[in-house]
Specification:
This protein is an all-alpha fold and 167 residues long. It has one domain. Helix content is 84%, strand content 0%. The protein is built from 4 helices and no strands. Helix 1 runs antiparallel to helix 4 and helix 3 packs antiparallel against helix 4. The longest helix has 49 residues. The two termini are 21 Å apart.
């Protein structure tokens, strides 16, 4: 039987996922300082995608593989997790649209003040804004995952006790 992951571990995972998403968004926005399709911009965007994919796989793949080894199939994602992921996506898109609307005016304002590479500052602000938008969703999802694991563990324990009492 796999050990129950603590709430602290789920919360640490939520913080790591939030930071990874914020860094990826900030890097992509900051890379806009380079010309389109330049090697530096392509490398930065590819690295950002790799960071997010690695973060998602490191969180979801081990659990899916454990479940597959145990039962031979991977159960569908629970409804509360799908809702949370949709909420995180909507929050991310809302921040993205806001950043898109403010990009040129902010870039012009920074250029007027003599900032040499305004996209770096916009990337940092965008990464922080994205992280702030998705952090509450990841935090709640961590609590939901921990509660679901405790509930699953309690039901398995009750089932084992019932089997032991029935003998």
């Amino acid at each position: 039987m796999a050990p129950v992951t603590s709430l602290l571990a789920h919360r640490c995972r939520a913080v790591v996922s939030t930071l990874a998403e914020g860094v990826a968004v900030g890097a992509v926005l900051a890379s806009r300082n380079a010309p389109p399709w330049s090697p530096a911009r392509v490398r930065t965007c590819a690295g950002a995608v790799a960071l997010v994919v690695a973060d998602q796989l490191s969180g979801e793949l081990p659990a899916a593989l454990r479940e597959f080894r145990r039962t031979g199939e991977v159960p569908p994602t629970p409804a509360h997790e799908r809702r949370a992921l949709v909420r995180a996506g909507v929050s991310g898109w809302a921040v993205g649209l806001l950043l898109w609307a403010l990009d040129r005016p902010a870039q012009r304002a920074l250029a007027r003040r003599g900032v040499l590479r305004p996209h770096r500052w916009l990337g940092a602000a965008g990464g922080l804004a994205h992280a702030a938008a998705v952090a509450p969703v990841h935090w709640r999802l961590a609590a939901d995952r921990a509660a679901a694991e405790v509930e699953r563990e309690a039901s398995v324990e009750a089932e084992l006790q019932a089997m032991a009492a029935g003998r």
